[in-house]
């Protein structure tokens, strides 16, 4: 067995297990919260490890990770109606601590530490926490768990990636953003978007519940996820180029690190939340 075939098999097996774990976790809200709390922690730890290799940057990896995981769980508890809003107080106190602690570390570049610490919360912890906003919906009967909305974000992202890769490989001629990601093309992005619209139409037919979203709203959500997912991929590519690394990690054999796997989602999830809230105002 050649190394190329072996690597392809490893990548395929890892990808199948990865998708299976994510999809099945949405069947019950306890499993979703548990899995994504772990994902949030692993991604934050990976991020902190990367930035601490940079010159003049030193952030508290343990507290930054713990704070982000707590924030995810706090949002889950609040959105599900299990905990009151006071659950956010420990997180706010932790943020204050992360600022004040720089007074005593005597590190020369405190602004860098503050900036990269807060970036970990805004770039990683906040988007993952917004999955709970998508998952728990208010109704006349109280708060209900709606698995299809958060799951659809990943379905659209996977569909977009598949379409972009296939169409881009065959027809890609015009580079989308050559300075950041030379492999991406406008043709591939368009192909991915078309495939997502087809997937959104199928979901609309399968769900057949206008109380969630209508056909046109599903199509709009698909486009929002596709556009912001592409930007999320480019943002992470810029981050890696700035730091000078190829992959964010190696925790997923054949797929790189956690940031590599969830880069698109980190932009698509908050964009989806804004889109859905905008629909309620129209």
From TrEMBL:
Its EC number is 2.7.7.41. The chain crosses the membrane at residues 9-27, 33-50, 62-80, 116-136, 148-167, 188-207, 213-231. PROSITE patterns: CDS. One of its GO terms (cellular component) is plasma membrane. It catalyses: a 1,2-diacyl-sn-glycero-3-phosphate + CTP + H(+) = a CDP-1,2-diacyl-sn-glycerol + diphosphate. Pathway: Phospholipid metabolism; CDP-diacylglycerol biosynthesis; CDP-diacylglycerol from sn-glycerol 3-phosphate: step 3/3; Lipid metabolism. It is an enzyme of class 2 (transferase). Keywords: Cell membrane, Lipid biosynthesis, Lipid metabolism, Membrane, Nucleotidyltransferase, Phospholipid biosynthesis, Phospholipid metabolism, Transferase, Transmembrane, Transmembrane helix. It is a multi-pass membrane protein. One of its GO terms (biological process) is CDP-diacylglycerol biosynthetic process. GO terms for molecular function: phosphatidate cytidylyltransferase activity. Pfam families: CTP_transf_1. It comes from the Bacteria. Belongs to the CDS family. This is Phosphatidate cytidylyltransferase. The gene is cdsA.
